[in-house]
Amino acid sequence: MIRTSIARTLTPLLALALLGSAAPAMADKYYKWVDDNGVTHYGTAPPEDGGSEAVRTYGPSSDQGKEIKALQEQREAAARAREQAEERAREAERAAEEPEAVAKERCEEHRANLEILENKPVVRVENPQTGEMEVIDQARRDEMIETTRAALENC
Predict the structure, then answer these.
(1) Which residues, if any, are the signal sequence (predicted)?
(2) Helix H segments across the chain?
């Protein structure tokens, strides 16, 4: 019974150690050559007499870092999209439950936004696709002021 639990513990550890020791070998440069008897050999060191060729081993891709970064950016964008969708769903649910309170809050937000748009020299907004803050130009500022004033007419 004790031997069985030891074997269960040591077997995965041994397998992990073997895999770990094989990883550095995959990074070595290998050579291929044919000897005088016509036998093909492979090794990490070429023969002294030359006549060998380097063999490509399948290690990590040279653009693996770029691929990992792109995948991470896709995951972050998907997470942001999920969070935004959940937030919109919560807002819609709350608007259905408490319409007057939500309307009052939105009017207050519109007034605060209009104050910022009209009085601050530089206004930044979050880009929904990248999540980064961007400075808006005068044309967009004017458009936002017009839209905000129109929303305030309903308050």
Answers:
(1) 1-27
(2) 2-27, 64-97, 99-119, 138-152
pLDDT > 50? residue 25: no
Q: Is the confidence at residue 136, as pLDDT, over 70? A: yes
CA neighbor of 59 nearest in space, from 94, 29, 34, 27 = 27
**CA torsion, ordered 23, 29, 32, 36, to nearest 10 deg:** -110
Q: What is the pTM of this model?
A: 0.45
- Mean pLDDT, rounded, of the chain: 83
Pairing of strands 133-135, 40-43: unpaired
CA distance 67 to 133: 25
**For residue 112, which of 120, 102, 100, 101 has the smallest C-alpha distance?**
120
